Input
Amino acid sequence: MPPIPSPLAYIPFVSVENMMRFVNHFGVEKVLCELTDAIEADYRRWGEFEKIPRLASHSRDGVIELMPTSDGEAFSFKYVNGHPSNTAKGFQTVAAFGLLARVDTGYPLMLTEMTLLTALRTAATSAMVARHLAPAGAKVMAMIGNGAQAEFQALAMKAVMGIEEIRLYDVDLAATDKTVRNLRDSDLRITPCRSAQEAVEGAQIVTTCTADKAYATILTDNMVGAGIHINAIGGDCPGKTELHKDILSRADTFVEFEPQTRIEGEIQQMDAAYPVTEFWRVLSGDAVGRHDARQITLFDSVGFATEDFSALRYIYSKLQGTDFFQDIDILADPDDPRDLFGMLRRAA
Output
């Protein structure tokens, strides 16, 4: 990781404004492609990472989570919430920030917003998995749930997979209208649909992205034809699903980190014997991904800390020589490391 010159007491902070400037400077699709490659590179060294299910505090209204990991050289964590009712109050469903640190000293390297960055890394993860599991030559994606993630997902699949058409459906017509407006200049063919059934017609990739904290059935078994790749990414937690369990019975299911997905993913509907494949095993050659044109593949994505680690390292690697950050003073710097009290006198 390249150093960013700054006084010892200061670390770079990437604000929401600077994250927007960063993405617009490099281009959304370029960032998504580079993030996809960065995330895949870290999945290919899966064994180097510390892995635990995220630490979650559940309430009636939503969930607050911490997502930590380390590869022995760098450590990262993300703070993130998921509150489906927030939009009715004028708030984001998801808000997040993250930190990257050195393992050898424990000193932070960077603090950054991660609401935008989580949307980007989630879309990049979807595209990474799809390029190994989706049917060859896929050109059409159905996007069921047109909220805050929709445009990122569409552009990642376009940039990485070559998707040409997005078929949109949401129970909230205003959400679909918003997505149509935002993708108007994307060169994608955009088809608003009147139902989920209509949206999946002709699609080779189906992405479900809803936020309700409930056992919901966004896709039923009769809607899923042979050969489809399902990208189930909607905000996950215990008691929240999007797919009818009969779909899981027909699909080959791939997950990020099985212990976490058993708690929060679509597979919480199934018993402990239900077989799943951790996706890193496909990249390592230990498991087969797509092997049949009629095979139904399911990515039961709940988000995992290594993806945030990859995103944080990616941002950090591109900051040097830019002005997409500001130095913030959050580290004590006593003249004598043993004399913290004496540092107070400097301000007296």
